[in-house]
Write a structure and sequence with these properties.
Order of helices and strands: HEHEHEHEEEEHH
CATH topology of the largest domain: Alpha-Beta Plaits
Helix content: 55-70%
CATH class of the largest domain: Alpha Beta
CATH architecture of the largest domain: 2-Layer Sandwich
Structural class: alpha+beta
Number of helices: 6
Distance between the termini: 109 Å
């Protein structure tokens, strides 16, 4: 490979490392063209970048970024999935699971999320269930909104009934006062 081409690939990989928060390293080298097309199409529709880089170039980038623990999984063909959505990649990987030669593909080799590295297929289910900070915050705010709206409704009904009771009492008093005159 020419040095210019290697430089462009290294630049592109570095750019994606900066641009995307979540990285998934997978193996799909047993996919045929039809399966690969469907997988890539799903990645495109979910705003995921899918990239195949030579392991030697990828090792250089990882060493530069001080992520050398991921280098040990760089065997055979490795594809990188870049995303800013924390759990869409594992969901797509799980969706496209297919058995080829008594092994299921795609294989999750590693995932790099929020400075944590997860190795192997055993984490795929848990990675599907992880929620981003934004989703968690949204769920908390939605929960609080429901609590506050219920409180407001309760107090509104409580004070409305109190207010109505006061008005009824005042009406009765005014009716009694008119009768007494």
């Amino acid at each position: 490979m020419y040095n210019k081409k290697k430089g462009k690939i290294l630049y592109k990989v570095n750019k994606y490392f900066k641009k995307y928060k979540y990285l998934y390293f997978i193996s799909i080298y047993k996919f045929n063209s039809d399966l690969f097309y469907k997988f890539k199409k799903d990645c495109f529709y979910n705003n995921i970048k899918l990239m195949n880089v030579k392991n030697t170039l990828l090792k250089k980038v990882l060493k530069k970024r001080k992520k050398t623990n991921i280098c040990k999984i760089l065997i055979n063909n490795t594809f990188i999935m870049y995303s800013n959505n924390i759990n869409i990649c594992p969901i797509i990987i799980k969706k496209h699971k297919i058995s080829i030669d008594n092994k299921t593909y795609p294989i999750l080799k590693a995932a790099y999320l929020n400075d944590y590295t997860y190795f192997g297929e055993k984490h795929l289910k848990s990675l599907c269930l992880i929620k981003s900070k934004e989703e968690t915050l949204f769920n908390i705010l939605l929960y609080l909104k429901n609590i506050f709206s219920n409180l407001i409704i309760y107090y509104k009904n409580y004070y409305n009934s109190k207010f109505l009771n006061i008005i009824k009492a005042l009406k009765k008093k005014s009716i009694k006062n008119e009768k007494n005159k």
